[in-house]
């Protein structure tokens, strides 16, 4: 019988080899139900395997990008979309296509602010990942693939304003990404509807 190991929440095959341990130990642990293979070279314990943020953290780890657009909007509770893939914004030169075997939709950007402005950092069992804030997520929905995101962008904006989201920050990000002209009339219309006690 294969030896039992005390595996951390997330195990990387490369680190395992550097410690002088045999790669077969990881395969045995998967067969015994001690670990799950979450991605090439990445293994997690059964407790981590069922956590909501595992796929998001892995998408960031594998692309070096930021969770954004509909994926971020759903995660923030801004709309009820059902994205077919995890939306990730990456540096233009970093990733040409999604990692093999992953359900990731890559949006490349030449603007360094796309991976920094309005981006929140998170820790997932030692694995760092990032996602656009609610205000930044709305701005992206209005500026990236606008025709496809139109319905969800409006829903996200209405939810944000209804829940007393920070309008000043929303305006700041929209101006930074040169799309305030598209947002402003809708912000005004939604605020006016709420002021009258109407549903936008």
Structure in words:
With 200 residues, the chain is an alpha+beta fold. The protein has 2 domains: 10-49, no CATH class; 54-195, no CATH class. Helices cover 44% and strands 18% of the residues. The chain is built from 9 helices and 8 strands. Helix 6 runs antiparallel to helix 7 (146-162), helix 6 (134-143) packs across helix 8 (167-176) and helix 8 packs antiparallel against helix 9 (180-195). The longest helix is centred in the last third of the chain and has 17 residues, at 146-162. The termini are far apart. The model has no long low-confidence stretch (mean pLDDT 91).
What's the SSE blueprint?
Blueprint: E1 10-12, H1 13-18, H2 24-31, E2 36-39, E3 42-44, H3 46-49, H4 54-63, E4 66-67, H5 69-75, E5 86-91, E6 104-109, E7 119-124, E8 127-132, H6 134-143, H7 146-162, H8 167-176, H9 180-195
Parallel strand pairs: 5-6
Antiparallel strand pairs: 1-3, 2-3, 4-5, 7-8
Helix pairs in contact: 5-6, 6-7, 6-8, 7-9, 8-9
């Amino acid at each position: 019988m294969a030896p039992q190991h005390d595996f951390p929440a997330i195990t990387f095959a490369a680190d395992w080899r550097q410690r002088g341990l045999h790669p077969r130990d990881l395969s045995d642990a998967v067969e015994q139900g001690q670990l799950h293979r979450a991605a090439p070279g990445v293994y997690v314990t059964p407790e981590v395997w069922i956590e909501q943020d595992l796929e998001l953290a892995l998408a960031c780890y594998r692309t070096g990008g930021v969770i954004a657009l509909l994926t971020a909007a759903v995660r923030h509770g801004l709309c009820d979309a059902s994205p077919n893939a995890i939306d990730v914004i990456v540096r233009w030169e970093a990733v040409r296509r999604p990692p093999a075997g992953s359900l990731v939709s890559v949006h490349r950007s030449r603007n360094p602010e796309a991976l920094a402005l309005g981006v929140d950092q998170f820790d997932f069992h030692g694995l760092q990942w990032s996602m656009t804030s609610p205000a930044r997520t709305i701005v992206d929905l209005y500026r990236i693939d606008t025709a496809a995101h139109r319905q969800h962008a409006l829903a996200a904006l209405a939810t944000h304003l209804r829940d007393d989201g920070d309008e000043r920050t929303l305006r700041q990000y929209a101006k930074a990404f040169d799309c305030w002209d598209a947002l402003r009339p809708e912000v005004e219309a939604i605020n006016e509807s709420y002021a009258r006690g109407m549903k936008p």
